[in-house]
Task: inverse folding
């Protein structure tokens, strides 16, 4: 096996894709619940506090998408370099997006 | 000396956050030198990073729900309201990034990093992102802490704990 061109494992690729999507989703959810108070109130009613609900939703989404992407082999077909870049970009966009959102609104 | 449960929980929260970040640094260094001999150690430390982040989440969440509202009231009446409106709001949601990445770390580290350059790059990237986001969150925590301090120095204690 060529060490440089080796693929990521099925679970490794699937959950990496899931992590990137979950991180972007989490940032969008933070902005939407901040702008749309009924959603915030609903999330408060689900699990004591909207932040706790938010965390559970993120974890459940991460696990669910990870299983789906791993079993389907979808993420495995993406070039590892692209997957790594996508994950890094999602973290940078999500982190800066949160800071800018709360700085402006 | 008067150490309250609030103090213990808050310090446990930040301590586990630092330990999780340090565990990610450890995995980063081990992955740079990935060999068959340190493969097991990489996997064990990756799990330690994830467990520390879970502990941070539980302690931080409990403190945030039960004790932070008093501090928030003080911060908002003090000279540094942005310590809550910008830094705490960003921090509490930014935390989910290293949390999810630390959940991923043991999965990524399960690949044979010593014979798969791409798996090694993935682990290096994830650990670096955990460290950078973890340090940002620790910095935000310091700003929030200072927001309470300057509020107290300006005599805004009436609305606090």
Result:
């Amino acid at each position: 096996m060529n060490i440089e061109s080796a693929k990521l494992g099925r679970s490794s690729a699937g959950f990496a894709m899931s992590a990137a999507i979950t991180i972007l989703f989490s940032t969008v959810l933070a902005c939407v619940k901040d702008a749309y108070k009924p959603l915030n109130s609903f999330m408060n009613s689900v699990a004591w506090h909207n932040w706790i609900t938010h965390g559970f939703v993120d974890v459940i989404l991460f696990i669910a998408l990870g299983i789906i992407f791993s079993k389907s082999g979808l993420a495995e077909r993406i070039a590892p370099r692209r997957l790594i870049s996508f994950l890094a970009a999602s973290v940078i966009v999500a982190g800066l997006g949160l800071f800018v959102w709360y700085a402006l609104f | 000396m008067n150490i309250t449960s609030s103090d213990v929980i808050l310090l446990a929260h930040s301590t586990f956050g630092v330990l999780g970040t340090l565990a990610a640094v450890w995995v980063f260094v081990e992955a740079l030198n990935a060999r068959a001999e340190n493969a097991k150690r990489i996997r064990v430390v990756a799990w330690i990073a994830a467990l520390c982040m879970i502990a941070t989440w539980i302690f931080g969440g409990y403190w945030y729900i039960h004790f932070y509202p008093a501090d928030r009231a003080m911060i908002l009446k003090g000279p540094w309201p942005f310590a809550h409106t910008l830094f705490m709001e960003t921090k509490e949601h930014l935390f989910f990034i290293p949390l999810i990445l630390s959940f991923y770390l043991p999965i990524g580290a399960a690949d044979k990093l010593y014979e798969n350059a791409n798996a090694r790059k993935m682990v290096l990237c994830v650990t670096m992102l955990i460290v950078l986001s973890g340090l940002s969150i620790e910095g935000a925590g310091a700003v929030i802490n200072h927001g309470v301090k300057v509020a107290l120095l300006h005599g805004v204690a009436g609305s606090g704990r």
User: Anything to note?
Assistant: The mean pLDDT of chain A is 94. Chain A touches chain B at residues 1, 3-9, 11-12, 15-16, 18-19, 22-23, 26-27, 30, 34, 48-49, 51-52, 54-55, 58-59, 62, 66, 80-81, 83-84, 87-88, 91, 94-95, 98-99, 102-103 (CB under 8 Å).
